[in-house]
Amino acid sequence: MLQPKIAELINDQVNKELYSAYLYLDFANYYEDAGLPGFAHWYEVQAQEERDHALAMRRYLIDCGHRVTFAAVDAPDKAYADMAAPLQAGLEHERYVTSLITAIYSEAFAQKDFRTMQFLDWFVKEQGEEEKNAEDLVKKMKLFGGDPKGLYLLDQELAARVYSPSTPDASAQA
Ligand code: FEO
Question: Which ligand 1 atom lies nearest to the CA of residue 130?
Fold first, then answer.
């Protein structure tokens, strides 16, 4: 069994990961409407990864003998001023998620819950990658997004993203 506080934090994080999926699908909706299907596709894949994260945490709680409960997922409520805005919002969101994972890790560390720390190690690494991806997108948009041809080529590049399951188990098998 996990300490109640740790179980509660991970249960909350399941909701936050599902919100991340919802937020990224909202970005995808925006880009579909803006005529950038490659950007939309990139965020559809990102949303799938977020759902994977939620399911991995749900499974961890179940495997530790906890009953998982679901709260309502907030509606994404952002208005995007221009085509770069979702990218910047995505970067800020990933930094926020990193702070949430860090808070759970800190609690696990304080309680000497080595099993949870080991489970979260994968997420710590994953957050590093997700922040880097989000930073790269912001940079590329700054460099190439102002030019129609550059924007078209960037859209093509993002359209090529391939989904592969984003979970600790999948990484262990890779
Ligand atoms: Fe599940 Fe983008 O962190």
Answer: 2
